[in-house]
Specification:
With 426 residues, this protein is α/β, with parallel strands linked by helices. The protein is built from 13 helices and 24 strands. It has helices at 22-31, 48-59, 97-106, 125-133, 164-174, 190-201, 233-245, 261-269, 307-314, 335-339, 370-382, 393-398, 402-408; strands at 2-7, 13-17, 39-42, 63-68, 71-75, 83-84, 108-112, 136-141, 144-149, 156-158, 180-184, 205-207, 213-217, 225-228, 249-253, 273-276, 280-284, 294-295, 320-324, 344-348, 351-355, 364-366, 386-390, 412-417. Bound molecules: ligand EPZ.
Length: 426
């Protein structure tokens, strides 16, 4: 079994370069299916979720050519069947985007029901509501979801919940539908805007992305394109919080500072110095960390994908903090792991009350999901002693070269392979 081992206590110093945004990449790659030509996608993160999506496209018949570590060239014109029924699909929530892309291209899709991080129910009702308004009926059987439209036609969709996935999926289905689609109460995340810009670079007509009303006029053809993915807001935020947790001084490069505003504001509230430059931010912390309250919200609020990381930081703050996870039902599974390191946290439903302690202590812990794993690394970097983090496959899904990047900042961190055998003595 592979683990990450961290000897805590080193202050992070130096520069780290942020990779392309995972949640933009896993929406744009299915979007390539809609193209009638070759698409070259640049600044794509070399992470498991992206490579899994590329493998699925290849299995569907697309020609996928890796130009270099961060560039893929994909020819989707060989995809003939509107199906993505592989076991692979079940391993990633973003596979649901294949429904919208195949529906948009073929007016039909058959996709294995997706999996993904386990923090509460991850429904698809808003996705299916949008498809129905575009004229697509759906059925579920044998673990497959089938959506089909005789004539995919634009419509007026009002999302009951601000949903990133539903917004992405409806955009993918609507760009080639007949007529105009309006998505009300749309998600406004940076990766929604990036997807819209990618689709428009192929010749789509998507307006209003980044606001809560997105208007799409369907077009007949989408051409091949060359597109570079935005930097990852959550990866950047993770390194910002890690710099603060270790009392370090880190320049986080290749960022869009506007995407980091809510994270920057929260860190400043905690007494962390954040200086914004053209495409980087410098994060320093020398004094004590102040307690604060956090409520996760859809963009531009504080991102739920930064909730475990900021909670890890708050375990070392001076005073008692409240974290309100207002997006997901059960995104505190990592708390039990932090408590093994000496954190003092009590969880009641969507609220976590965190009493700051002077020091965390290294311990054997697990990564319960992607961002929880990042939180464990942050806690381990600041803790006294050694921390062993298991189930690191979750972390590798969304963070490119995470051990190498932290090591380059002076962290005492490494991957180790341990024999899983446990000798039971009588
Ligand atoms: C995306 O998940 C992200 N994943 C998640 O990031 C992120 O936490 C989430 O958006 C919120 O920002 C990707 O982009 C691949 P939602 P998604 O639909 O689309 C409810 C990470 O760490 N809902 O915005 O699945 C849902 O239960 C991952 O990178 C419905 O009720 O999230 C939740 O409470 C983890 N019905 C809320 O909406 C639906 O049909 C937000 O979910 C869809 C969602």
């Amino acid at each position: 079994m592979e683990k990450i081992v961290v000897n805590g206590g080193n202050k992070l110093k130096g520069n780290v370069t942020i990779s392309g945004a995972k949640n933009a990449a896993v929406a744009i790659l299915p979007g390539v299916i809609l193209s009638d030509g070759i698409c070259r996608i640049e600044n794509i993160p070399n992470i498991m979720d992206v490579n899994l999506m590329a493998t699925i496209l290849h299995r569907m018949g697309a020609k996928v050519n890796r130009i270099n570590k961060s560039t893929l060239e994909i020819d989707p014109t060989y995809i003939r069947a509107p199906k993505a029924t592989y076991d692979l699909v079940r391993h990633m929530r973003a596979s649901s985007y294949l429904m919208g892309a195949l529906l948009g291209k073929f007016s039909e899709a058959e996709v294995a029901l997706p999996g993904g991080c386990d923090f509460g129910v991850r429904p698809l009702d808003q996705h299916l509501k949008g498809f129905a308004i575009l004229g697509a009926e759906h059925s579920v059987s044998g673990g497959m979801i089938n959506v089909k439209a005789v004539n995919l036609t634009g419509g007026h969709i009002y999302l009951d919940v601000v949903s990133v996935g539903a917004t992405v999926n409806i955009m993918l289905a609507a760009v080639k539908a007949n007529g105009r689609t309006i998505i009300e109460n749309a998600a406004k995340e940076p990766h929604i805007v990036d997807l819209a810009n990618f689709l428009n670079s192929m010749g789509a007509d998507v307006r209003g992305a980044g606001t809560d009303v997105i208007k799409i006029n369907g077009v007949k053809h989408l051409n091949g394109t060359v597109y570079s993915i935005i930097p990852d807001q959550i990866e950047a935020g993770t390194y910002m919080v890690a710099a603060a947790a270790t009392g370090g001084d880190v320049l986080v490069q290749n960022v869009i500072t506007k995407h980091l505003e809510s994270i920057t504001a929260k860190l400043r509230e905690m007494g962390v110095e954040v200086e914004e430059y053209e495409d980087s931010v410098r994060v320093r912390r020398s004094g004590e960390l102040k307690r604060c309250n956090v409520k996760t919200m859809p963009h531009p609020g504080f991102p739920t994908d930064m909730q475990p990381q900021i909670a890890a930081l708050l375990t070392m703050a001076n005073g008692t903090s409240i974290v309100n996870e207002a997006v997901w039902d059960n995104r505190f599974r990592y708390v039990e792991e932090l408590k093994r390191m000496g954190a003092v946290i009590s969880v009641d439903g969507k609220i976590a009350v965190i009493e700051g302690v002077k020091n965390l202590m290294g311990a054997p812990v697990k990564a319960t999901d992607l961002r929880a794993g990042a939180a464990m690394i942050i806690a381990a970097l600041a803790a006294n002693g050694t921390t062993y983090i298991e189930d690191i496959q979750h972390i590798e899904r969304g963070y490119e070269e995470v051990v190498e990047k932290f090591a380059s900042l002076g962290a005492d961190i490494r991957r180790v392979y341990t024999d899983n055998a446990v000798i039971h003595t009588a």
